[in-house]
Amino acid sequence: MLHRQRDRALVPYMAATVLSVETFLLVILTVVASPFTLYPAALTPTNGVGLNPLLRDPGMMAHPPFLLAGFASFTVPFGFAMAALITGRLGSDWIRAIRRWALVSWGILGVGLLLGAWWAYHVLGWGGYWGWDPVENVALLPWLTATAFIHSVIVQERRGMLKVWNMSLVVASFILSVFGTFTVRSGLISSVHSFAVSPLGPWFLGYLSLVIIITVGLVVYRIPGLQSDRAIESVVSRESGFLVNNLLFTALAFVTFWGTVFPLVSELFRDTKLTVGPPFYDQVNGPILLALLVLMGIGPLLAWRKSSPRLLLKNLFWPVMAGLIVIPPLLYFLRAPIPVIALAVTVFGLGTVVLEYVRGARVRRRNTGEGYPRAVVMLVRKNGRRYGGYIVHIAMALLAFGIIGSHFFQVERQFTLNPGETATIRGYTLTYQGLDNRMTVEGQVIGAKLAVAKNGVHRGDLESYRFFYRNYENQPTARMGIKSVGLDDVYVVLDQWDTTGNSQTVSLRVFINPLVNWIWLGGVVYVFGMLTLLWPAPAPARQRAMSPVREAVLREA
Description:
By secondary structure, the protein is an alpha+beta fold. Among the domains are: 1-39 and 51-237, no CATH class; 410-517, Tick-borne Encephalitis virus Glycoprotein, domain 1, CATH 2.60.98. Helix content is 60%, strand content 14%. The chain contains 16 helices and 9 strands. It has a 5-stranded antiparallel sheet with strand order 2-3-4-5-6, with no helix packed on it. Strands 1-9-8-7 form a 4-stranded antiparallel sheet. Strand 3 (428-439) and strand 4 form a beta hairpin. Keywords: Cell inner membrane, Cell membrane, Cytochrome c-type biogenesis, Membrane, Transmembrane, Transmembrane helix. It is a multi-pass membrane protein. Residues 25-187 form the Cytochrome c assembly protein domain. GO terms for molecular function: heme binding; heme transmembrane transporter activity. Belongs to the CcmF/CycK/Ccl1/NrfE/CcsA family.
């Protein structure tokens, strides 16, 4: 057991909690819905129909395992939280025990979400990567609460504060993981991700209710022991910044949760299922996400206990200037104030991260004589928890750039073309070269071949296909033609085609998606930041040797 020696008093209760979760799942597998149940003899099919065509994609080899591993691994932090509640050991021991576990769970689930977005973009054929679908939402919820916890736990470690918040966020992350499983398996909420419905819904609902009753009861019972050791001394402090961070992430999770369950609530009370679409989430969650980007730019510059307003304004000068400088050219080229503001705020947040690296590298160079590149590398190596977190902030900024660009500046057009004809969209010229119609081992493939040019310069070719898999002939599966040109993705969907006689007429939906690749780049940086956060700290002797540099950096911060 990883923490057996260090957390001897907590481990038995943690293990009992984890085993109780495993017992429930084993009962489900062996009694309720055994995967080895045989078909009745009269209903046994002579041959299987194969995997659903939408799932025949490399992304599906990783996306579900990462999501489920993220959900499942939240059991360990939940187990330690329950151990702390049961034993009354509500100090920092249980926090130290689960910090790495929480990072692992949060990181794996985040990778699963990104892989799901990548799969949706390449397979579903609607030109996007995130549609606020109920199953997408329930997978996002525990990641949001875990993100809040990973930030909030720093305050309890440093200042003995936000104990109720930390306990509640850990418990909520596990409960929302169970809720996500219940939502997917119950079939109560319709989703493009629902590929099968099972009788497990009532079982998970009962288990979810039991967990909520027990955990809420324990948290309420232990409220006196969860009081903060200190009060927040100033609104302008790092403690206040983390509290605002908790409020924003909780608000984001609540809005997403409410939008997901609202169709069920409306059907229950009004006998009419009202759907909640992407516009609701964009209008409500958009300002919250913008506020988080602002906080990402301010938070690292706040001091513990109380910040000097004069010093804070001085530290904010360069990040604010970076955000302001980009506004005029962005307004000139984009002529859209809302996305320009969002992009400027993202630049502001990114500017703070760059400032922190520059200041840290400058201090290290002054103390060690190293060059700036090596100083930056050594900052990350020696203080991975701090600078690994900044790497994740860089990833979030890249994701924000990609989301803003693709959301506000996507262009969609419909074209009907014959071989040799061209379509023009936002400076791109697509020349239709012909239809590819062939049989493969798995079924029929029909694809449109196109040449892509930008401002008269040939930039490559793409092919957009429809697959008719055997046993799924009535469910043609799209494979989008995607060509990255500069900051844009040229994204082509084959909608209709005519193969009668010598005709090769096709109907195409063409999207120009700006900055989408920045989302995938942000995902790579996110993984690097997560690994940096998880990398073991240096040996104590080396930590002591580095302490003057680290203290100097902290003083300048």
